[in-house]
Each structure stands twice: as structure tokens, then as C-alpha cells.
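EI: anyone free to look at a 293-residue chain?
SC: sure, send it
EI:
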Amino acid sequence: MNTKLRSVAGIVPAVEMLEGEGMRIRRAFPSREMRELDPFLLLDHLGPVDFAPGEAKGFPDHPHRGFETVTYVIEGQMEHRDSRGNHGTLGPGDVQWMTAGSGLVHSEMPGAEFSKSGGRLHAFQLWVNLPRRDKMAAPRYQEIPAAEVPVAVDADLGVKARIIAGEALGRKGVIESRTEIAYLHLTLQPGARYLQAAEPGSNALVYVIEGEASLGAGSVKAAAGDYATFLRDGGSIPIANESGAPLDVLFIAGEPIGEPVARAGPFVMNTKAEIYQAFQDYQNGLMGRIEAR
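SC: here you go
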């Protein structure tokens, strides 16, 4: 067991931008600072934003191939549809893990009820790469309602963990992922100090949702909207809340796939030829289309 604590490699602020129908997001990566953190391809923070009735925006029909998307809703409601006839609605605390695999067309829009009444939308989307052997696997959905997402609490430590994938505080997530990762929503009370285990050699990051975090062996400070990456020379990662208010962070870690990455828009493959083929397949209708609502 590697008992050395990991140090912070860098702190990077997420970049504000518009996506979809004009939805304001904060993108952690890809960016000029970091293209990807193998096996992770993208991390977007949606909101929190308050919409008036009829004002909510989303992400209309778009294709995917070659990776997995993980949508985690904290507040609000998102409705998804795809070209294979799948349809569902995510509410507060719900998780959708979509293996795009060989390809489909997908949309994520505000739920009809939410769009009508308005309210606050707050969510995250993470893209997880697939290894070469799985890039053309059949698409698959796993939808985990909030009540089934494992939650672990250590009152003595002052820490709560919602376990989307991986393990924390003795509990494991229920997602079956093709690429093994940890994805945790951690809440630390003022004064709490916590060590999150990470596999030796894995890539790891901590994204600060709200509050101020002290991270790594050197207690490096990170504010809301910042994320930290860590050196791969140790095991556990210290996360501490030295402020007077609760701290919310995402902890994300995974073993590098170590394969070439070719990406263009919504497609992530291993070669440029495979990207070209993905665009051809999409344009020729081989990924289907979403039927009229």
C-alpha cells in the first residue's frame, strides 16, 4: 500500500461559455490548460442558474460515438431522448450513465414540467473515454434514481459522500462502468479533514462546487469553480475544509487507458480515419434520428 499523500499538480479555473441553445456553463476541460485527463474527456458544470417560466434552455439533438456520458442532476429537471427510442426524466440527485459506444443521436432538454414552471437548474456532465475494444459496443443506459445512489455519512469526520461510482466511507457505487472510475460528491462540514483513497497510478481531480477547499499534501487552496489535478506519486488525497461554511466537491479518478485519442466534436475514437467514418455514418443516418415529440 502506498501511504504517501498526493500533492496538487495544478489548480485551474473552469471557463464560462455558452453551449446548446445558449445554456451558460462552466467548462473545466477540455481547455487550453488541459485537453483531457485520461480517461476523462470533458467536465461541464451546468448552472446553478435560475430560469423564469418558459425560459429554460438545453442541448438539442446531437450525436455521440466512442465514449460514455455521465449526467448528474443536483437541482432541477432534465429530459433525455435518443434515436433508439429511449426517453426519461432526471430530477434532483438522479444519475444517468450513457454508454454511447457505436453511436446514437441524443438530446438533453429541460423537463416539460420544469420548463413550464421555471426554477433552478444545477447539474454536471462528465465524459469518460472507452478503450479501443469497447468503442463500437452497443449503446446502453443506466439510470439511477436519487434514492438508489449510495450515500455514506461519517458524523465524527463531518463528511458525507454520494457515491456515483467507486467507493468511499466503506460503501460502493452501483454503476456498471466499462472504464473503472471513482465519481463522488463529497460534502465536508467546517473543520472536516478527509483522506480519499485513489489507486496508485490513477489520474485524479477535485472540482470545487461550493466553498473553499484545502487540497493535497500541501493544503493548496481552491475556490468554487476551480479544479485541482494531482501528482500520481502517492495514494490517498487529502481534502479539508478550513473555512466556516460547508464545502461541496466532486472527486473524480480513474486508471489511464493509455491509447491514442482522436476527437472531433461529439466523436472520440483512436484514429482520424475512425472520426471521418463516424461523421459519414452520422450523415448517412446510421446513428438514427430522434422521432418528433
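EI: The helical segments are 112-117, 272-283.
SC: 👍
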